[in-house]
Write a structure and sequence with these properties.
Largest sheet of chain A: 8 strands, mixed
Number of strands of chain A: 22
Largest interface: A-B, 37 and 37 residues
CATH superfamily of the largest domain in chain A: Acetylglutamate kinase-like
CATH topology of the largest domain in chain A: Carbamate kinase
Oligomer: homodimer
Helix content of chain A: 25-40%
CATH architecture of the largest domain in chain A: 3-Layer(aba) Sandwich
Number of helices of chain A: 12
Strand order of the largest sheet of chain A: 3-6-2-1-9-13-14-12
Distance between the termini of chain A: 19 Å
Shape of chain A: globular
Structural class of chain A: alpha/beta
Chain lengths: 414, 414
């Protein structure tokens, strides 16, 4: 039988009534004839509460114990959802990360999936059961509990979709799809019926709060079709899939803003070959993900190196950067949390020139200063002051005519 | 090194401050030089809240999923306590039931320990770490999460004490030891410095809210010395140990009242051989624990069979009893929750006569009607109306002079 994987976020299971609603939706898929696997997040707010509790106990909780602590959130959700499915007369079984067979490395709080042993899931599916899996978690080979990083329930769903060769992975969330920009900021933002993995990847990593970028990467790698949709309506959402010939080659598909990053600068770095490699090696050793990097020569024989990271990594990053600065003889380390990254994304950029200039002029038109720039084949990002982010999004959304593309053919969901 | 096992109940870990207090106490044992294993319950009230949540989702949650759900309570506690120990500069590691190597049968919500594989614990102890174990839970051979029944964290501690050959298992609780009667009822109740397993067993199963009787049985079986004491004071509590020659042969050591049982009666049961066996076999098949049983002939060829059970099992029990009643042609099933069991306990009863008569006359003196009687070598129990329980305890405590035994030699704790 064809397999479907559905993933429900924390807000979809935040009350007994909502859990029953999810159960009904899950059963609908089963009734259609799908082998149904469901990935559930912790009840909304639970993970934050648990982390808060940890910090009430100690300033620097061990990451191993954080994982033991916060993995309980999803365990509660899967048990409750299984009960709700039972109460509607269908068979279901809940699995924790370890029972699911999701084997990870031992980087606690941000573990990576090494392999998935899906035999247990397949076995229960073959018995006609709905399998309900705790998102966001796994275990090491030594049975240590790990978590995959915040928001990684999406990743769990996609990874299971890949290994089970699912027809589609449905990501149920509190937004009903991917928009040309945040509708709260750009009032005329449109829902995109379809988007390519690459575009979604840029949108996800750039701060469209719809799906985790690691999950999209994984979906792209294994070519898993993903349907992002609302858990509160039956309307089709946005289908994320391989770039198809039939896809409209829209130059700019969307505008995003990410306000959760922070900037760290090493100032007065001796300008020697290999220095940058050394710095970023040390940061990588500490599992710190770097986003943008800018280097420029500040004085003779010295350069300044700035980079952006997730704001939640700032404390750790500054600690590492200060050690490195001392080791390499840099003058000082500074950091800045009041930044935002605004970006435009679109496959069409590959074959169009002048997009960057158009973006910079839109920002200039609003008197917004650009502090860092980063480009890829299908996106351009600028770091600006955080408080100007919404203004920038509105300006870019208008400049590229995203709200007015009513002529664009609306794809029907397959 | 000598091993000590400490067990802390839910009220001992009910706030970050209390968790730090427990951490300090745990570290004291480590400093003395013990290999220290700590068993922790869920934060007070957590298990009830989780069960309540389950019943908000469905009227009849599956027991497998209840176990997945409620086992998270202890998982939270162990992680937080491990963090608290770390923050005080000591090494600690938390273990869930499955990581601990506690293998159980598959009777969800009331599983029995089949074996303990302590290699992982021993390994961490040998590295100098304090090992913090989630009480109340285990896993089956197939890695299914199980729980051992309410209050079974005591059992976890004693079982680990047995397998690790602990010098002593300390049960930290919100009372400071075992008393001759409930001090809230009998104002002159005395703390017992020492008590035998058998006496404690009767006290525990009879409703002294200090320790679970399964845990005491286990302690007796493996001769594990148990020290029941307060988590809020440094005073010695009550030592539970093998009956020693030096123990005072007090005739009656304590008076207890259990108000949590219920009575079920099958009325008009055909008086045939094997009928009682059939009834209790069917109840046993459903894992219902029977306490007292009374049978009497009510009319020619018919008898009434009454028995007591834990009040929480009442609904299940009545359901089974009604099916059995139908199968064997009994007239009806009745149940009664307004009962209490008052008991007197003491090793000395073995060699003293007239104790029962003295008990019955004390109750008669207060106009308390006795509905069922059950005796063992070292205890006598009477079922009475629940509302008369406190009155009965006071009368018995006075009649046997328990509050006045100031002449009894107070043992010093070793």
């Amino acid at each position: 039988m064809a397999v479907i994987v559905q993933k429900y976020g924390g807000s979809s299971v935040s009350s007994p009534e909502r859990i029953r609603t999810v159960a009904r939706r899950v059963i609908e898929a089963r009734k259609v004839g799908y082998d149904t696997v469901v990935v559930v997040s912790a009840i909304g707010g639970t993970t934050d509460e648990l982390v808060k509790l940890a910090y009430q106990v100690t300033d620097s909780p061990s990451e191993r114990e954080i994982d033991v602590l916060i993995s309980t959130g999803e365990q509660v959700s899967v048990a409750l959802l299984a009960m709700a499915v039972h109460s509607l007369g269908y068979e279901a079984i809940s699995f924790t990360g370890s029972q699911t067979g999701i084997v990870t490395d031992s980087a606690h709080t941000r573990a990576r999936i090494m392999k998935i042993e899906p035999e247990k899931i397949k076995n229960e599916l073959s018995l006609g059961k709905i399998v309900i899996v705790a998102g966001f978690q796994g275990t090491t080979q030594d049975s240590e509990i790990t978590t995959l990083g915040r928001g990684a329930s999406d990743l769990t769903a996609i990874a299971l979709g890949a290994v089970l060769k699912a027809e589609v992975v449905e990501i149920y969330t509190d937004v009903d799809g991917v928009y040309t920009a945040d509708p709260k900021v750009a009032k005329d933002a449109r829902k995109l019926p379809v988007i390519s993995y690459d575009e979604m990847l840029e949108m996800a990593s750039l701060g469209a709060q719809v799906m985790q970028s690691r999950a999209v990467e994984f979906a792209k790698k294994f070519n898993v079709p993903v349907h992002v949709r609302s858990s509160f309506s039956k309307d089709a959402g946005t289908l994320i899939r391989e770039e198809a010939k039939s896809m409209e080659k829209i130059v700019v598909r969307g505008v995003t803003a990410n306000k959760s990053e922070a900037k760290v600068s090493l100032l007065g770095v001796p300008d020697r070959p290999g220095i940058a490699a050394l710095i970023f090696k040390r940061l990588a050793d500490d599992d710190i993900n770097i986003d943008m990097i800018v280097q420029n020569v500040s004085e003779v024989g010295k350069s300044d190196i700035s980079f952006t990271i997730e704001g939640s990594d700032l404390k750790r990053t500054v600690a590492v950067a200060e050690k490195v600065a001392k080791d390499i003889g840099a003058r000082e380390v500074s950091s800045d949390e009041n930044i935002a990254k605004v970006s435009i994304v679109g496959l069409g950029m590959r074959s169009h020139s002048g997009i960057a200039a158009k973006m910079f002029s839109a920002l200039a038109g609003e008197n917004i200063n650009i502090e860092m720039i980063s480009t890829s084949e299908i996106k351009i990002s600028c770091i600006i002051r955080k408080k100007l982010a919404d203004k920038a999004v509105k300006a870019l959304h208008a400049k590229f005519g995203l709200g007015k593309q009513r002529k664009a053919r609306r794809k029907k969901k397959k």
